[in-house]
Amino acid sequence: MSYVDGFIVAVPKENVEAYKEFSTLAGTIWKEYGALEYVECIGDDVPYGELTSFPRAVQAREDEVVVFAWITYRSRQQRDDVNAKVMADPRLKDDQWQMPFDGKRMIYGGFETLIKL
What we know:
Elements: E1 3-12, H1 16-32, E2 37-42, H2 54-57, E3 64-73, H3 76-88, E4 107-112
Antiparallel strand pairs: 1-3, 1-4, 2-3
InterPro entries: Dimeric_a/b-barrel, DUF1428
Organism: Rhizobium chutanense
Pfam family, one: DUF1428
């Protein structure tokens, strides 16, 4: 079964276009190195819950929108190999980009596929 990296970030509404530009480049690089799929979704119906919610998870403010995203791979080993190459790629170096979101509030993790229908 496939392996998935998932993440959630809060993006200031004024930075959505910059985030889209950055993510398009990032996704292209991930795919160049072998990722099967790179998907980023912008929140449309994401209520702020009383106890838990996507906005609470990333401490989203009123001027921010939640982005939910994932990258798929053939296996965890392939994911580890792809991510090592991506992280070394000079096109994504921090000094070239002013990040359009607060990375300290990003939630991410790797997941083994349990079922796929």
